[in-house]
Specification:
Helix content: under 10%
Order of helices and strands: EEEE
Number of domains: 1
Distance between the termini: 24 Å
Number of helices: 0
Radius of gyration: 11 Å
Largest sheet: 4 strands, antiparallel
Shape: globular
Low-confidence stretches: none
Strand content: 35-45%
Length: 63
């Protein structure tokens, strides 16, 4: 996924979990997200975003 494709409000999956993008820092390529279940904030680098069209939580299973 390209950094330019990330936008606020987008749901993304990452190695740290899934969430909604709340802020994008273009200078460091850091993406700030909020967990959909617990409302905890976390940050990930663009390289940690999982290129999957379906954003899943850690507890979810693939069918």
């Amino acid at each position: 996924m390209e950094f330019k494709d990330i936008h606020i409000g987008m749901k993304c999956g990452s190695k740290k979990g899934s969430g909604t993008v709340t802020w994008v820092d273009g200078s460091t390529h850091t993406i700030y997200m909020v967990d959909c279940n617990s409302n905890d904030n976390f940050e990930v680098n663009i390289s940690d975003i999982i290129e999957d069209p379906q954003a899943h939580n850690k507890e979810d299973d693939y069918y």
